[in-house]
Design brief:
This protein is of the alpha/beta class. The protein is built from nine helices and 14 strands. It binds 4'-deoxy-4'-aminopyridoxal-5'-phosphate (PMP). The site of 4'-deoxy-4'-aminopyridoxal-5'-phosphate has 11 residues, from helix 3.
């Protein structure tokens, strides 16, 4: 058995893989999900159910729309300022990693980004705390979970301006209060489903305010007004996301999975802090529950530990090149048994050194 700690695309529940593969062969009357029209009543049903599940699982209040797009979270880096930043205005950004940085870079095509705080000097190993968000900013943007560095913001920063959040790597992992946000976006390929789909949750009243002429495919309104079917949507990604969200619902929803995610993260951090061979790379109070980054006290042991992990069936543990060491990504579908297996592996490796 392989334990998949990959950062994304990542593990999804085995039963979702099985259901999705059955639908490739026979979704309806012998027809594959891959060959039916997106305008068929069957697929319209899938779309409606996926939309309803996002709303249900995140308790999305009325006055918000759930949209299904393509282009990944990276396209949102540009779509957000294109749709929400009026000419001549400034948007406020919190720089907590590479993804935030890429989002900041896209703003220059539309206006100005003011970086309200950054932890770049410390290789993004913590979340800046004391920063002021200008009251006249068009919006404030932050990344709730920094996939590469393993830091997470559990509290929404206080501000009077609209809040935009890149939630790609922690959406559906813990309970959030959607009413604290004006726009949430997430690439699907962690806790939602396969790659190829992006989810946007937007407060309807903030749309149509930028005064810009926006091409149809880049205008949130096109998705909102056409039930995310302005053009052909990523049918199979949406279908599989629907299966995965149904799995989450059957497990008791986000509040239940949050308990599991907390137990998984607590167990691994406990071992990292106890085992003299390993150390965490981030400020303890900012540690992510989804991506757990650690290095070895003796860097010379990293290669042997990586090999030991590989030989024992562990996948995707290599840290991102900008942090080095190891990263255990522990999304919703990763069973706690895999976390216990990793802890056992770390302990066995420790014994081998003595
Ligand atoms: N934001 C975050 C937090 C991410 O983790 C990622 C990808 N891992 C991205 C943005 C970019 O997403 P995509 O590849 O879907 O464009």
């Amino acid at each position: 058995m392989r334990h998949n700690f990959g950062a994304g695309p990542c593990i999804l529940p085995q039963e979702v893989f099985k259901q999705a593969s059955r639908a490739i062969l026979d979704f309806k009357d012998g027809l594959s999900i891959l060959e039916i029209s997106h305008r068929s009543p069957e697929f319209e049903g899938v779309m409606a159910e996926a939309n309803k599940l996002v709303k249900e699982l995140l308790n999305v209040p009325s006055g918000y729309s759930v949209l299904f797009l393509q282009g990944g979270a990276s396209l949102q880096f540009a779509m957000v300022p294109m749709n929400l930043l009026p000419e001549g205005k400034t948007a406020a950004y919190l720089e907590t990693g590479v993804w935030a940085n890429k989002a900041i870079k896209e703003v220059k095509f539309f206006g100005k980004a003011e970086v309200v705080a950054s932890s770049k000097e410390a290789n993004f190993s913590f979340i800046p705390k004391d920063f002021a968000i200008p009251a006249d900013a068009a919006y404030f943007h932050y990344t709730s979970n920094n996939t590469i560095y393993g830091t997470e913001l559990f509290e929404v920063p206080k501000t009077t301006v609209p809040v935009v959040c890149d939630m790609s790597s922690d959406i559906m992992s813990r309970v959030i209060d959607v009413s604290q946000f004006d726009l949430i976006y997430a690439g699907a390929q962690k806790n939602i489903g396969p790659a190829g789909l992006t989810i946007v949750i937007v407060k309807d009243e903030i749309l149509g305010q930028s005064g810009r002429a926006i091409p149809s495919m880049l205008d949130y309104a096109s998705y909102k007004d056409n039930d995310s079917m302005y053009n052909t949507p990523p049918v199979f990604s949406i279908y599989t996301a629907m299966l995965n969200l149904n799995w989450l619902k059957s497990k008791g929803g986000v509040a239940e999975i949050e308990k599991e995610n907390k137990a998984k993260a607590d167990a691994l951090y406990k071992e990292i802090d106890r085992n003299p061979l390993f150390k965490g790379t981030c400020a303890v109070e900012d540690r992510s529950r989804m991506n757990i980054c650690f290095v070895m006290e003796n860097p010379e042991l990293e290669k042997p530990f990586a090999k030991f992990a590989d030989d024992n069936g562990f996948e995707g543990l290599k840290g991102h090149r900008s942090v080095g060491g190891f990263r255990a990504s522990m999304y919703n579908a990763l069973p706690i048994t895999s976390v216990h297996a990793l802890i056992d592996l770390m302990q066995e490796f420790e014994e081998k050194q003595n």
